[in-house]
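Continuing the series of single-chain predictions for the mutant panel. This is the parent chain; the variants come on the following pages.
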Amino acid sequence: MNPTIRLDPKDNVVVARAAIPAGTPVPAENLSALQDVPAGHKLAARLIAKGEKVLKYNTVIGYATEDLPPGTWMHSHNIAFGDTDRDYRFSEDYQPADILPPEQRATFMGIVREDGRVATRNYVGVFVVGNCGATAARKIADYFDDERLADFPNIDGVVPYVHEMGCGMEMTGEPMDLLRRTIAGHIRHPNTAGALVIALGCERNNIWGFLEQEKLVVGPKLQTLVIQDAGGMADTIARGKDMIRAMLPEANKVQRVPCSAEHIKVGLQCGGSDGFSGLSANPALGVAMDLLVKNGGTAILSETSEIYGVEHTLTCRAVTPAVGQKLVDRMNWWLDYNKGRDTQINGRVSPGNNAGGLANVLEKSLGGAKKGGSSPLMEVYEYAYPVTQHGLVFMDTPGYDPVSATGQIAGGANLIAFTTGRGSCFGSVPAPTIKLASNTPMFNKMKNDMDINCGPVIDGEATLQDMGQQIFELILRTASGQKSKSEIVGMGENEFAPWPIGVLA
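Parent structure:
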């Protein structure tokens, strides 16, 4: 098998399929490796002159820092990060998605709520408006273990949604609005059958102000508990257990029925990326998302700082120039927010990304954007706003996975698809996470965490179309109740992480 992978005829680099020792011939490129090249890293396919653009997928990922002969190991030591010219070409390539008629769409076994929304899971949540209620929330939720829920087989669990904010912040403005919107989005989520909201009582995120602003109405499925009024922590925990116990019988009264795939909303994530992520897992997930869109569903691409440099590939296929401009506006916000800071959008990727073969954010973005497939961009949302538009949409979030996925779920994502090349232990509630490995060696090392191996694409044993179909079918099974690896292990309760604007970059 050819030891390298060529992604485009115009590329001046190729990717090492596996580790290539120095001196190894690469007959397809008529060269030999001049240095040891790790798996997933790049080799110069021809002479690349100093200052010349380095092309991968016929897209600029940087500039040569010196004259680089064929066979040179190409990485951050000889690829300089730099801004690139981008023509946004707003909506010039827009083509409506080919949507199947309702009667021909794929189906899954979902839970239909009274208002017609469709759930993929059935959780009861214990929420806090501020960190002061976190201990009570955890102790109440932890009480309802598998043994105590044995009589309620249709309930997936009682989970705490705790965070570090709610006090020590301005009482009005974007940070508070975002926090409230995120919590409320999880309370309203179709996968939430009942909710208890706990407050100390004196938080800046006042519980009654929160409920009023978010138009949440207290009732049988939404209860409140204030520690200062309940008599302290011990009494709060005891009363909270009673309140959750009273919710369980009604929450258990659900059954799964056939539902159209148009009700599936998938939040797209990548973390621990490597040089193979943009070749296998990400584009294969993109194929699956094109299938989902064809069946009337929704794909939510995010992580704004991780599409930097390739945002023009989305704006050119936006449904309207106004939608494309929304994406550019959010990118400009990020560029201003990160001025002078040692952050990813300014060139430096994480040590794990770098070790995996990604030289800079331009190369990472090139692969990350492929998760969205080729469907037209239908809308752009700010963080945690309800996603109501079907098709491919974008939500503005940080690149930090827990914060990004939390925003997507608050917006209505009822499943998360997470690609990784280095390995990840991410999980989420109330929407389950499925994890896609970009390469076979990592998949074999982390079989208990990975749901599907996209490595056969790299190994030459499967096409992206084959793998995309497998992912789409796994999405349908997971939405129908099949537990993901992260659910089996019990991950997700600690990944609820609202975006603390002003802290995260």
